[in-house]
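Sat 14:20. Reprocessing the chain from the morning session after the first attempt stalled halfway. Input below, unchanged.
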Amino acid sequence: MLKFIQKKNREKKNMRKDQKLKPKCPSSLRSLIACQDSLRRVFCNCYHTLRAWVAQWTAHPPPKNVQIEGREAEEEKEDENNRRRRKMRK
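Finished this time. Tokens:
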């Protein structure tokens, strides 16, 4: 039993030495920085595109006769119906 414990302790000690001797890999750091830069570029492009799109639509809203597809169209119809009902009540 004592030999087994000594062997385990030696293994732990050797593992600690190996960990101290391992140099940190600069190539992985470079790849992380490159990845971060590319993600930043993509995010900035998306952000500026979205911001320009919002500015365009707020400056020039779509005409009333343009059909909106999907759930937005249903919500738009419900809003119009609710407005009409409110006017009728008054």
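The first helix runs from residue 2 to 21.
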